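Colleagues,

For the teaching module next term, I've prepared a clean inverse folding example: a structure given as tokens, and then the sequence designed for it. I'd like students to try predicting residues themselves before seeing the answer, so please don't circulate the second half yet.
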């Protein structure tokens, strides 16, 4: 396994809470956030990057200030949250490298994209503690992954050259013509093998989909060794995510990088409503999540 350098380890410590577990609020979404703010495509198109920046600033100020880290994008949110004093001095900053959406190959595979002009040097210039790259993987289709694996390797090499922390995330996806039943049955294996691919690329910190079973979590932890992994929420409801986190932590996960499960029904184009929901509903959910994580960190200690 590829160990973190001293500088990378320092960055990792900063994205973790006092209990040593990752607890990051993810709000680097763009298209997905627009779809939550407005159901009509025409209304979504009217939501500017500045308007998304308002929402991300509120999430950062009213929710992420209670966590150890926030994950933001460099298009709408950064450097704004730093320059305007929104980001709490004690809250670490991960900056997403991936562009919103994806291209589709002639064979129907998802091709990930990088945000233009955003590499390790630019993340450092923007005040980032580290970066995060997300790609799509289908481990059962090697030909589907060549483009996306090349992106991961490129980003890992870039961040290694700058000696800056990089979190590697992947998502699986349902293929055209594949039944939901068949896809769902494959998820534990797809997440395990996607983890293997990421580790082979040299990933030092992972952000993973919940793999579906306690056994799959344990196998991922065994495979990852000293490489810490955080579970992502994928927009499931809060109660479901709490259960997933409990299972993941019990079986070796090192924390969470969670977004929509905390704030998806709290954001609004009415900022007064948004702020109130974030301060009450979202923070309450965060506290419950932190309690689950803290419980298992204490047991591990």
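(Answer key — instructors only)
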């Amino acid at each position: 396994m590829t160990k973190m350098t001293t500088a990378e380890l320092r960055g990792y410590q900063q994205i973790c809470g006092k209990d040593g577990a990752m607890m990051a609020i993810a709000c680097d979404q763009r298209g997905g956030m627009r779809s939550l703010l407005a159901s009509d495509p025409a209304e979504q198109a009217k939501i500017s990057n500045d308007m998304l920046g308002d929402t991300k600033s509120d999430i950062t100020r009213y929710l992420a200030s209670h966590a150890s880290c926030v994950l933001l994008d460099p298009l709408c949110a950064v450097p704004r949250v730093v320059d305007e004093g929104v980001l709490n001095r004690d809250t670490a900053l991960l900056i997403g490298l991936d562009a919103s959406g994806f291209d589709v190959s002639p064979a129907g595979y998802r091709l990930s994209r990088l945000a233009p002009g955003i590499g390790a040097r630019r993340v450092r210039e923007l005040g980032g503690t580290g970066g995060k790259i997300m790609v799509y993987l289908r481990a059962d289709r090697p030909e589907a992954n060549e483009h996306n694996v090349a992106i991961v390797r490129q980003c890992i090499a870039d961040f290694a050259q700058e000696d800056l922390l990089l979190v590697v995330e992947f998502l699986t996806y349902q293929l055209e013509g594949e039944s939901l039943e068949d896809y769902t049955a494959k998820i534990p294996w797809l997440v395990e093998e996607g983890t293997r691919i990421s580790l082979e690329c040299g990933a030092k910190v992972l952000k993973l989909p919940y793999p579906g079973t306690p056994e799959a979590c344990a196998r991922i932890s065994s495979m990852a060794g000293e490489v810490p992994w955080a579970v992502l929420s994928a927009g499931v409801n809060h109660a479901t995510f709490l259960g997933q986190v409990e299972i993941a932590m019990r079986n070796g996960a090192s924390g969470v990088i969670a977004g929509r499960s905390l704030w998806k029904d709290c954001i609004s184009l009415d900022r007064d409503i948004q702020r109130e929901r974030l301060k009450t509903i979202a923070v309450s959910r965060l506290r419950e999540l932190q309690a689950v994580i803290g419980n298992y960190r204490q047991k591990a200690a």
